[in-house]
Write a structure and sequence with these properties.
There is one protein chain. About 30% of the residues lie in helices and about 45% in strands. It is globular. Strands 2-1-6-5-4-3 form a six-stranded mixed beta sheet. The chain has five helices and six strands, in the order H-H-H-E-E-H-E-E-E-H-E. A hairpin with a 5-residue loop joins strand 1 and strand 2. The chain has about 120 residues and is of the alpha+beta class.
Length: about 120
Amino acid sequence: MRQERDPVRAAIEGELRLMDPAVRSSRTEVVRLLDPEFTEVGASGRRYTYEEMIAELHDQPGSSADGPVHEPSEITGVLLAPGLVHLTYETRFGGRRALRSSLWREQGETMGWRMYYHQATPTP
């Protein structure tokens, strides 16, 4: 019998991995963590598609091992429905803060949990 993982914990682990510079700079790892239907509205207000994020994440701030990193706090999550988790939290990055919200969905045992949607809102 397969032991079920806590869905909220799985989504939080994925979220934290996507903040890791080693993961952000690896196209292979990013492909494993983003849903093929992924979209994002960044703190800049720019909308990103899956294809754009795969192509550009390695060049975005927070993707270099010797640069600043996203510092998350107060991550909370809720299971909205089977296979769908909503996370909210705050990050600090280079003196800036943002409130963040992500939707993670499970795509079966082979694909696992992947980020489906992300939004960042700058905050003073």
